[in-house]
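Can you please make up a whole protein chain along with its backbone structure tokens because I've never seen that pairing?
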Amino acid sequence: MKRILAIMMIASIALSLLAGCGQSGQSTTAEQTTQAEQTSTTQAASKPDSISFMYQGTDRQQAAIKAAAEKFTAQTGIKVELNYAPHDVYQEQLSGAIAAKKIPDVVQLDAPFLSNLAWSGVITPIEQYLDADLVAKPFERSQNCDTHSR
């Protein structure tokens, strides 16, 4: 159950981050996002008091993640324990958590590290929980995001 809620948070954070990055064409309305979150939340018979989220990013990205976590908590009542790690030690800290079997509920991953964790069975695919258009065209909504600026 905790894993499903973590997956919902990933989707929620992803949508929140994508929503702020100059979209063109179709967009998901706040009402649609809220309805999807409420439906998923009501399907969970028992929910945890909190979930943990390990992430990295620029100051702007950290602020966006914090805002998304606060919104998630307000909408679900589930506290998000944010665990920031600087980029240069992020993978080392996450690998240590995995080895110690103290894996955060939600983690931020880049493609190479994601592939390694998927092949080793450490993570679970989440495609079934995401909007089909987001899976089919993952970069269309985020093409105007500047994720590497300081």
Remarks:
- The chain is about 50% helix and 10% strand.
- The helical segments are 2-19, 30-43, 59-76, 87-99, 111-119, 132-136.
- The CA atoms of residues 1 and 44 lie 7 Å apart.
